[in-house]
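Entry 14. Structure prediction run on the chain below.
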Amino acid sequence: MLGSASVILDDHGRILLVKHGYGELNWELPGGRGEANESAEDTARREAREEVGVELEIDRLTGVYWEPEKDMHHFAFRARSTGEARVHDRSEITEIGWFDPSNLPRPLSDFTECRITDAISGRPVRVQTIGPRIWRR
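Output returned:
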């Protein structure tokens, strides 16, 4: 199984985050699980359209994260959006916002912070194993 998320940056270096309406009610990167015959990049593009109504211009892959607990690979991309972001399905996403990377909202997982850091660092693509989420409240 694979999932993809995008660290979407605006012209001011702020990151687009969505707030989930389920689970931990946390802030997260736009993204989700892949569908049959869908590449990681196509998943990122589709999820951005479905969750916040934007098309993506993907700059690059920034990380591949293996989560053995869920038998899942997560792909993260650095991207820019075309169009104005807005909430599409309030049962899944309750809010969206643009945030400075030094002042991220809570609750937020350590995994989300890791993907943001990797995307804005300019370092080569990271490939790593991740453990259970630690929540920043």
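Helices lie at 40-52, 110-121.
Filed with the rest of this week's runs.
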